[in-house]
Structures are given as C-alpha cells and as structure tokens.
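thread: overnight batch results

M.L. [08:02]
morning all. the overnight job finished for the chain we discussed friday. pasting input first so we're all looking at the same thing
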Amino acid sequence: MAARKLHTIEKRMIPASDRDIRVLILRPTESARPQENTPGILWLHGGGHLHGMYQKILLSHARFLVEKHGAVVVAPEYRTAFEKPFPADLEDCYAALLFLKVHADELGINDAQIMVGGESAGGGLTVATCLLARDLGEVNVAFQMPLYPMLDDRETASSRDNHAPVWNTRTNRFAWKHYLRDLGGTMPPSYAAPARETNYARLPPAYTYVGTAEPFYCETLEYVANLKRAGIEASVDLYPHWFHAYDMLLPFTRKSREAVQRFEERYLYATEHYFAPQEKRLFSQQPKAEPGKRTPGDGDRWPSGEEPSTAPGAAAPWRIWRVADHPEMAEEAAAWFSAKWGIPEDAYLESMRESARAGSAVPQWYIVRANNEVASPIIAGCGIIENDFHDRPDLAPNLCALYVEEEYRHRGLARHLLDHARAETATMGYNRLYLVTDLVGFYEKCGWDYLGDAHELEGGTIRLYGAGTCFRES
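M.L. [08:03]
and the structure it wrote out:
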C-alpha cells in the first residue's frame, strides 16, 4: 500500500532585492484547515550562513507543522556567505516574508498569523528578519521560533573554548569571519548579529530551545532574557549535554522526540493566543499632502557597521543636498550623473539651472556626499522631473536617475533617497510620484505600486511605478 502524501511541494521564483530567488512552498493535504485557522510560516534553514539547502525544510520540524497541524510553510533559497556576505541572505529572507504577506489569500493563510522560524543560522536570521520587519513596519509577525539561534559574533562563555561536535569555537569563528567580511572590520549592525540589538520592544513573542553543550547556549538565554525585560512573552527549554543540532542529527532518540513534542505544544499555544493583524492601508490611499508640510521618513534602512539601527522616526545619518540650494555644486553634480547614466552633462546642467529658478517646483536634483562633508565625493543622487522619457504625460512628476555608488549600497541609502524624494514631492503639492525602471522587486519592497508597462519614447517598454507622497503615521 502506497504511503499517504501528507503535504504538497511547490517551487516558485519570487522577486528579491536585486534578483529573483527560489522558494519552496509546503501545503498540507489531510490536515488542511480553513484559511482563518491556517498560519503562514517563513522557515529559514541553518548552515552557519555558509551552506545549506532550502530543501532541508523536509528534514526540519517545520514539515511536521504542515503535516500534523495544517500550517503553510515558505522556505527561501537565500544566498549563503560563500555566494555573497551580509546582507544578501537577510534581503532574501525579508523578500520571502513580504511574499508570504502579499500572497496570503493565494496561499490560504491567515495573514494575522504570520510566523518566522528556523534552526541555527536560520534561527539567527529569524531574529534578524523580525527586527527588520519591526523597524520597517511593513509586515507584522505574530510569533517567532528561533531554535538554538546563531546571534552573536562576539565570543560568549559557551562559544569560547568550545570543542563540541558539529559546531564549536573554530567553526563559529570561521563562519562569522566570512559572513561579515564586507563590513571591513567595523562593528556589525544588529541585523547581522542580532545579539547586538539594544531595543527589544515590539518584537513578536518567542519560543526556543537549546542544548547546554553547544556554542549558542549563552546567546540564546540572553536573547530570551532581553525579550522578557522588554515585556515580550518568551520561553526557552534547555536540554542537558546536547551538542549543536542534536535533535536533527539524532531524531530517533527519546530526548529528541520529547523536544519535538514540546516544540509543537508551544506552536499550538501560539496559534491560539498570538495574532498580529496586518496594516491594510497602502501609501497610495493616503490623503494629499499639504504643500510645505513635510512628513519624515524612517531613516536608514540598512545601517552600516558604524551606525546603530535606526528605529522608525529616528534621524537618518545621510545628509541630502538639494542642488538648487547650492548652485556651486551643479557642475560637479551634472558630471557625476552624466558618468552614471550616459546622458550628456549639459542636459543635466541645464535642468539644474532650471531648478534654481523653479523654487519649490520641478525639476529638482539631490545628491549625497560621503561623510556628509562639502568637499567629499558624491556617493548617491536622484532627480525629480516632469517626465522620464515615457508616453504617459498624465503621470507626473517622475523620480529619475537614482544611483548609489556600489560600496555604499545595502546601507539603506537608496531607500532613504526614495523616502526623501516622496517627502519633497509632497511639499510641491503632489500626492503621487512616479518612476520607470527595468528593476524588478526592489520598488515593491519600498512601498511603490506596480502600475503596468509604459512605452519609452525611443521605443520598447519599461515598468511603471507610483507611490503616494504622504507617509504612514506612526
């Protein structure tokens, strides 16, 4: 007699920050429930940030949440540090979290019960993803399950001089070195090493377990303690003498079976007690801004190693210079934009001179300098113009020429420029800002609405986006 199939598997490509990523979707068969009773779980595989496959979900506890308890699980094939170091994997995980929210109805899940979990490095990414979701305010997470999570790049009492099997001091040092290699030795942000976080407020309730012999013992206990100090419900089960991933390597032992049973009990408790309804309001549904009234954005989205995480409403570290207010910068700015986009320098310079006459109307141009110093080089910029070479004159004004130098990417600078442009457009009396691009995924994640394709004036088609110029009030 053939074995009963308790779940279905679907592989799908979804947009991430600068590429498409593959996700595995597990749905229940016999244990399927109505949508209002079906949590959606983002499950992140382990592997020390260095290796591992998203197919490992079939060996993890997440599979049993599907087969026995009717959950729907999405597991992304995030980039490992051997492919690309931080923040590549977190970008991919967050893209999968957005996918889970946006496609809740298609997946048949209750979007008020979106949960995140994972083992080892996947547990660390669970916490990092919850931190990012809290700070961006785009997805509300109801419950987190970071099992024996990899959280601290610094050595603790349990990760120092640890010679246990599977994962120990030597492997831990090697993994962190490769994962953080692009930070140049600066202090990593809490999105990379969540143990460095100092604000644990508004994080989702948590359950975890950890073995006493493994390197992550101390950082796991400290994380739970920090959550409790912040008033967040959190609990941890301890298993004496367990080395790292004991439960996955020896699942047939009595202790492992007991741990799985306890894990499932805590999950079922969460399904009955923890809910986090999603914010349904979109930027495009906001009222028109009053001219001259600015609403601040939420600061830098990807802090560098030298900057603390910025919570919503915090001041961003980047100073944006409006070229119209500094005409002495126009020639340098025009040369910089021309070098990036291949449009003649004189065209930019003419537009910038027009901006000086336009006052608080389009066109306007903006630049960012390294270290916020007048004499330092330009590292990013963008413009707001009437039309960006497409055939929809009714859609104006347009963001154009957004560019960030490569070494300054993944620090939130592009997102900060986008927010600033929307705020500037609001002061001009517009309630919408548009842009055309061939980039897929990034602008959706930044809160822009995909409006379909537009025709370029020189032929061909290009993706058209729009966004409201008022920000959601906190």
